[in-house]
């Protein structure tokens, strides 16, 4: 059955800032089942923590505070990125939650690497590698999944001036890692008065890594609102120390989003390698990869490699281009694009099941068979690929007509 193409969205409204525990608290407050959250986090295999929640007041707002309590047997291992990712990969998590949690820690590693002038794989996580931070990040990713969130957006990151003590000693505010995360995602900042940390590195990583857009409220139908309480008590004249998450649905209309365009001229690249370069860039997070022939100086034939990436993944894709190709530099710029709502459904055909991409267009929905599924059927059934496409398209059209008939009743 073809479902509605309305998209479920969560908007992170940084009323008083953002941290890992504030995000987790806001998701619970918005309706994420706490028992299921605890059950999923137990699969991390990290010892020595307990999770509990309570209602607390921040100014005039009642919010949920999630506590991660560490016992005597808590694992305080100082981890590198690969260690944290191994913990996530070994946990029993929904695939989208796992992907989101990995992305947050990959962003943190990239930001810390920028700050300290080392490679991401050599970053030792101190504060953000501790048990409570792993629980906050994975718990937030799982909370989004339990609420069925398909798209995440965020307000600009509020920042102040001042100083803060950390595992690296005294550091200026905004924290260097927070600014590095904002720069990697081209995220806008919101200057505020005061001398306190409003956004932690973990909070900034969640927002900049997972948000498809950072800016004003989206246009959507509001369904629920959750407030997550921070650890700091409210200060006189300051906004309440809460993160607000607004959850709703966006109808069957095109969605605006920002992408980073990465380009490199290749005039001495072995063309036999380019096929694997495509796959590597897709694995790094590229949305699209394509080549265009050009003629360079002295009449040399070359190609322009172009990759599109979400702002949060752009640094990883850029690194892959520099590592996997012969280019000496990568150009980058941001672009706005409009994306049609789409979803993948499986249709039954006489040749077997196949996935189809349904896109909502002005004037009606269209269906496109997934090439990999059609190719697999073609090889398994010894049927020409064009015939497989025809059969899958007929099945998709039959499904579309039956769904339209059902909805008209």
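^ structure tokens above, recovered residues below v
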């Amino acid at each position: 059955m073809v479902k509605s193409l309305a998209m479920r969205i969560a908007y992170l409204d940084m009323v008083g800032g953002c941290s890992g525990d504030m995000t987790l608290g806001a998701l619970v407050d918005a309706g994420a089942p706490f028992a299921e959250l605890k059950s999923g986090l137990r699969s991390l295999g990290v010892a020595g923590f307990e999770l509990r929640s309570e209602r607390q007041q921040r100014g005039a707002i009642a919010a949920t505070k999630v506590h991660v309590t560490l016992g005597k047997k808590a694992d305080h291992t100082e981890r590198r990125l690969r260690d944290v990712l191994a913990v996530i990969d070994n946990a029993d998590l929904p695939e989208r939650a796992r992907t989101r949690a990995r992305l947050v820690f990959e962003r943190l590693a990239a930001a810390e690497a920028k700050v300290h002038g080392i490679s991401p794989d050599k970053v030792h996580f101190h504060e953000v590698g501790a048990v409570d931070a792993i629980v906050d990040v994975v718990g937030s990713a799982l909370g989004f999944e339990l609420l069925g969130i398909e798209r995440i957006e965020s307000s600009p990151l509020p920042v102040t001036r001042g100083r803060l003590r950390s595992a690296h000693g005294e550091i200026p505010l905004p924290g260097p890692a927070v600014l590095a995360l904002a720069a990697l995602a081209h995220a806008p900042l919101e200057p505020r008065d005061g001398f306190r940390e409003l956004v932690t590195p973990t909070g900034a990583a969640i927002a900049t890594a997972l948000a498809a857009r950072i800016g004003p409220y989206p246009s959507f139908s509001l369904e629920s609102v959750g407030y997550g309480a921070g650890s700091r008590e409210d200060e006189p004249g300051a906004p309440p120390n809460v993160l607000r998450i607004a959850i709703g649905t966006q109808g069957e209309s095109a969605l605006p989003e920002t992408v980073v365009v990465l380009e490199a001229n290749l005039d001495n690249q072995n063309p036999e390698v380019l096929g694997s370069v495509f796959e590597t860039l897709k694995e790094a997070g590229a949305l699209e990869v394509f080549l265009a022939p050009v003629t360079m100086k002295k009449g040399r034939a070359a190609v322009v490699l172009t990759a599109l990436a979400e702002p949060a993944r752009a640094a990883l894709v850029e690194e892959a281009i520099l590592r996997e190709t012969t280019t000496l530099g990568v150009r980058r710029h941001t672009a706005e694009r409009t994306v049609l709502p789409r979803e993948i459904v499986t249709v039954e055909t006489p040749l077997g099941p196949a996935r189809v991409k349904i896109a909502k267009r002005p004037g009606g929905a269209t269906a496109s068979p997934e090439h990999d599924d059609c190719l697999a059927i073609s090889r398994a059934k010894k049927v020409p690929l064009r015939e497989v496409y025809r059969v899958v398209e007929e099945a998709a059209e039959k499904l579309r007509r039956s769904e339209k008939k059902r909805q008209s009743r």
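The mean pLDDT is 87.
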